[in-house]
Amino acid sequence: MRETVYYKVAGHLYSxxxxxxxxxxxxxxxxxxxxxxATTFTLVIENGKAPDYTEExxxxxxxxxxxxxCTIDGRPVxxxxxxxxxxxxxxxxxxxxxxxxxxxxxxxKMAIDNALMVLFALATADKxxxxxxxxxxxxxxxxxxxxxxxxxxxxxxxxLWQQYVDATELINDDNPVVCIGxxxxxxxxxxxWSGKTPCYRNVVYPLGGIVLxxxxxxxxIRRLTGIETYAALVPSISGKRWDARIADGLHQSENILAxxxxxxxxxxxxxxxxxxxxxxxxxxxxxxxx
Length: 290
Fold this sequence. Notes:
Layout: E1 2-9, E2 12-19, E3 33-34, E4 41-47, E5 54-61, E6 64-70, E7 76-82, E8 85-92, E9 98-103, H1 108-123, E10 129-131, E11 135-139, E12 142-147, H2 154-164, E13 169-172, E14 177-180, E15 186-189, E16 204-215, E17 220-223, H3 226-233, H4 244-260, E18 263-268, H5 272-282
Parallel strand pairs: 2-4, 4-9, 12-16, 16-18
Antiparallel strand pairs: 1-2, 1-3, 5-6, 6-7, 7-8, 8-9, 10-14, 11-12, 11-13, 14-15, 15-16, 17-18
Helix pairs in contact: 2-5, 3-4
């Protein structure tokens, strides 16, 4: 029996239609369940055969590969592989409002998560919404986001904040969502996607600051300029930048973030002092003390 379930992430409503047993694999989405209404995008999950498509680009991340391509009639395709085994193919309409996920019998959950992240990032790119690859914590009413290449220590730094700064809580450890309101207020949301750390919280906080992390044999922090902030943001934001509509939407949001949100470059060790140095810079404008 097929069902349609609605979810709302960062204010964006979407629906998933699939066989009932598929939803048993989607426990991380339950905090985001919502009532149905006008949706930002829809996803239909079903079994089927591989689509014919031409590869445009591929992205490798540890044991995972995402291949971007296009069908002969111009529809975007994304193939998801885990350890070189195909988990599924996402075939989309040109505006990314509708997607069909064709799954295999291997790594189905991985295909579902990747398909929904891709659709979410691309369908909302022109709606003042950014899906980040980052770790983010909350502290006394603000969210603080940590960026960096894979293996830099984003999760470690968030864990150290929770260890050494009372009242710190993890919002999301891999894919938080940043939104810009009509008044240009910037907020950060939790999401159903949190990497290897199970943290699926439907919460929102004003974004108080951004930190780009770099491993070093010492702890030192400095404020980034607007241009430096923009350059730091781009590699951490999901998007299909060779699509003009998506690129323009991302650029507009990234400009606002670079102008409005304080950002810092932290060279650090994985220790308590790194947290103290970072804390002092981030909370300076909030007149707070640890």
